[in-house]
Amino acid sequence: MNLHLLDGTYELFRNYHGAPKRVTADGTEIGAVQGLVASTLSLLHDGGVTHLGAAFDTVIRSFRNDLFPGYKTEAGVPADLLAQFPIAEEGLEALGVVVWRMETYEADDALATAAARFAPQAEQVVLMSPDKDLAQCVRGRHVVGYNRQKGAFLDEAGVWEKFGVAPESIPDYLALVGDSADGLPGVRGWGAKTTAAVLAVYPHLEDIPLEASLWKPAVRGVDRLVEALRASLSEALVYRFLATLRRDVPLQEDLADLEWSGVPRQQFLAFCERWGFGALRERPRRWRE
Question: Which of 56, 88, 197, 226 is surrounded by the most beta carbons within 10 Å?
Answer without folding.
Answer: 88
